[in-house]
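Sorry, explain these tokens?

___
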Amino acid sequence: MTLRSLISILSLSFASFSAFSFQLPASMLSMNSELATSPAKAALVHQETGPLRSRILDQYQKWKGTHYQWGGTTHHGVDCSALMQHLFSDAAHLDLPRTTGEQIHRGVQVAQYRLKAGDLVFFQTGPNRRHVGVYIGDSQFIHASSSQGVTVSTLSDNYWQEHFITARRVAGSSV
């Protein structure tokens, strides 16, 4: 067997392996598939200005200014993970777990430079404290701030960059 033949076989094997090892992006899924009509699929297929972003912003208007309350789940006081539960339930018909510690394991990890509206962003804000928000584009995210209540902050601010730990794409995955 020649070296050229061996390289061709290895290349084909790797290409086949790669195709089956990774989940295809939503844009490559057939619009005729069963998933195409699900709320999860509808939430995933969007541009930064697409429908998921619009629905999240609509929900934000209902929560804007609500004060932060650890363990809170209502408009009288809400914490960051409960806010994400409400936003995703109302904007994308997706059920997220109650705590940040559980939410951080949902969906698929996404690099910060590949963030899209609707991705969850996670921060380590203390030795045993995590914080979560939802990315809305233009380096901004919605969250329940302990000092400002439900607000929009800039991901590129030094504080958030220093505390950023991961981002997860939950829309379109098994949530």
